[in-house]
Design goal:
The chain is mainly α. The protein has 6 helices and no strands. Helix 2 packs antiparallel against helix 5. It is rod-shaped, with a radius of gyration of 27 Å.
């Protein structure tokens, strides 16, 4: 009777399947968070930051203007560096997420085909749970970098537009006065 009860318990894997569904939902949430980070916008900001850095080194600017805009140039360099770092980390995170997806799928299949006991399942489940928790930390960190980089870029661009308008106005007024 004890053997029959033990084997009946091993047959029912509903609870374990619900656990794997929880892992699937965590992966889905991670993927949604990653998808919310617009790579096109980041590529635009990265390219624009590069263009701005080049412009701030332009021979069209005099020494005084370059000194005046030195901190803006550093800010664009920092934004560019953060975006490049973000892209590398995002690529790595995507690989890790794909790996976790396949691990969870394998865990489900092994559970269904009874390739291990419930105790072994619990061990593997805990490992995947820890791996996903680590991925969650990285994803949230990347989301913060993404948000800060875009905010800093937008703020700097707004400020830069005002500065450029002043420079162009000064250059135009200087050109007008020399033409008289």
């Amino acid at each position: 009777l004890a053997l029959l009860f033990s084997s009946c318990q091993e047959i029912n894997i509903n609870k374990e399947m619900r656990y794997t569904s929880l892992l699937d939902s965590v992966i889905f949430d991670q993927q949604e968070l990653m998808d919310s980070m617009d790579s096109v916008k980041l590529n635009y900001c990265s390219q624009k930051a590069t263009d701005r850095m080049r412009m701030l080194e332009s021979p069209r600017l005099n020494h005084f203007q370059k000194q005046w805009l030195y901190h803006e140039k550093l800010a664009y360099q920092k934004i560019y560096t953060n975006i490049q770092s973000f892209k590398k980390q995002m690529f790595s995170l995507e690989k890790e997420l794909k790996y976790s997806k396949s691990q969870i799928q394998t865990l489900k299949e092994d559970l269904i085909h009874r390739h291990f006991s419930k105790e072994q399942f619990n061990t593997y489940f805990e490992e995947e749970q820890k791996a996903l928790a680590e991925l969650n930390v990285v994803t949230n960190k990347l989301k913060k970098i993404y948000t800060e980089s875009l905010y800093n870029f937008d703020s700097l661009e707004f400020k830069m537009q005002g500065i450029l308008n002043q420079i162009y106005a000064l250059q135009n007024s200087h050109a007008d006065s020399t033409n008289k």
